[in-house]
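Q: Second attempt. The first request was missing the SMILES, so the protein and zinc ion are both included now.
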Amino acid sequence: MALALRGEGAECPCCGARLRHFAGFNGRSGALCPACGALERHRALWLLLRRRWGQGSTPRRVLHFAPEPAIGRNLERLGIGEYVTADIEAPADLTVDICDTGLPGGSFDGIVCSHVLEHVSDDRRAMRELLRLLAPGGEAIVMVPLDSSRETTEDGPEVTEPAERERRFGQHDHLRLYGRDFEARLVEAGFDVSVQQVRLSAAERERFGVHEKDPVFVSRPPG
Ligand SMILES: [Zn+2]
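A: Got both inputs this time. The predicted holo structure:
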């Protein structure tokens, strides 16, 4: 890590690095941990997972889609019996399509799926597959880039031009821009959804470099 950033003003919850401040990334200041690569949303997700799964209610079998290293390393340390990574391309334990994994139903007690569904052309089918993979009592931890000023999602799997995707959806490989109806989409797929944010004081938010706007959709099979 760059010596220049070592300090005491900020702390990365993903790797424990103590920094003067997080580094800039993609035009955002205070975004990137120079030690482990974690961004704001990774730090928010890990803080929530650590509270949710790290204190006596650790799932036995966890499937992690498009595994972010900053999260994966920590999940492995939680003492999960079976931690499996999956992605559309190698390297991951399983190379699978999230819409049709071919895995037996009810195989996992926990699923982590963050910033994946916006890349999937049939995201509703992917949501149903996540539901199918969960055992009763399990939960999927889902995050997507979401524009909370939008009531409805702007869907565009038919848009193939990267520049047009960037303009409309914010990134060259995003197929839609989710709005506040994202939760309803999960419910429509059959989930019971609880929208959560890691609870932090303003000082903690500042120290951990976490935004208020990154909601986490805890999605469970009904019943
Ligand atoms: Zn870090």
